[in-house]
């Protein structure tokens, strides 16, 4: 699996990009009004409180939209692969754009329940998702350990 650019880890985004070391999908939440929000920010987008921080989710989500990519954008890119927008089950309003793994692209559908699996690349843990039936837990996988 090839990734051309990795995200920059900042104080605000560290929990999201590094939570995979513990198998945890961390999403920002406001401690005042209790909304979940992504991307992480130092201020709540709803009530403007600065009392915000990462909170652990179940790591479960549902596919809301997807596309199958057949174009190898880099020489080492394996195709086809599925890009998806998933809504996080226990973080209402939060949707993530991600890659689906361990799935036949033909079998993907809107409404498919998925679970996070982390791809460890350099200093980040990229949250990827696989069908719940194919999941063996929320552990991290190495860059070489995914298809």
Concise overview:
This protein has about 150 residues and is mainly β. It has one helix at about 15-20; strands spanning about 25-30, 35, 50-55, 60-70, 80-90, 95-100, 115-120, 125-130, 140.
Question: How would you characterize the overall build of this protein?
Answer:
- With 147 residues, the protein is mainly β.
- Helix content is 3%, strand content 38%.
- The chain has one helix at residues 14-18, and strands at residues 26-30, 36-37, 52-56, 60-69, 81-88, 95-100, 113-121, 124-131, 140-142.
- Strands 4, 5, 6, 7, 8 and 9 form a six-stranded mixed β-sheet that branches. Strands 2-1-3 form a three-stranded antiparallel β-sheet.
- The longest helix has 5 residues, at 14-18.
Keywords:
1 helix; mainly beta; about 5% helix; three-stranded antiparallel β-sheet; about 150 residues; six-stranded mixed β-sheet; OB fold (Dihydrolipoamide Acetyltransferase, E2P)
Please describe the topology of this protein.
Blueprint: H1 14-18, E1 26-30, E2 36-37, E3 52-56, E4 60-69, E5 81-88, E6 95-100, E7 113-121, E8 124-131, E9 140-142
Parallel strand pairs: 7-9
Antiparallel strand pairs: 1-2, 1-3, 4-5, 4-7, 5-6, 7-8
Q: And the CATH topology?
A: OB fold (Dihydrolipoamide Acetyltransferase, E2P)
What is the string of helix and strand elements? HEEEEEEEEE
Number of H/I helices:
1
Strand content: 35-45%
Distance N terminus to C terminus? Answer: 7 Å
Count the domains: 1
Shape: globular
Count of strand segments: 9
Structural class: mainly beta
Radius of gyration: 15 Å
């Amino acid at each position: 699996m090839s990734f051309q650019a990795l995200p920059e880890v900042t104080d605000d985004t560290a929990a999201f990009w590094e939570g995979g070391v513990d198998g945890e999908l961390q999403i920002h939440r406001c401690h005042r009004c209790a909304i979940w929000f992504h991307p992480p920010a130092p201020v709540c987008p709803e009530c403007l409180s600065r009392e915000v921080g990462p909170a652990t989710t179940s790591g479960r989500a549902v596919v809301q939209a997807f596309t199958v990519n057949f174009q190898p954008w880099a020489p080492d890119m394996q195709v086809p692969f599925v890009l998806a927008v998933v809504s996080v089950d226990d973080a209402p309003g939060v949707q993530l754009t991600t890659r689906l793994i361990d799935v036949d692209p033909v079998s993907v559908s809107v409404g498919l329940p998925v679970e996070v699996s982390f791809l460890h690349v350099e200093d980040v843990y990229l949250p990827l998702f696989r069908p719940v039936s194919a999941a063996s837990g929320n552990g991290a996988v190495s860059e070489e350990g995914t298809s």
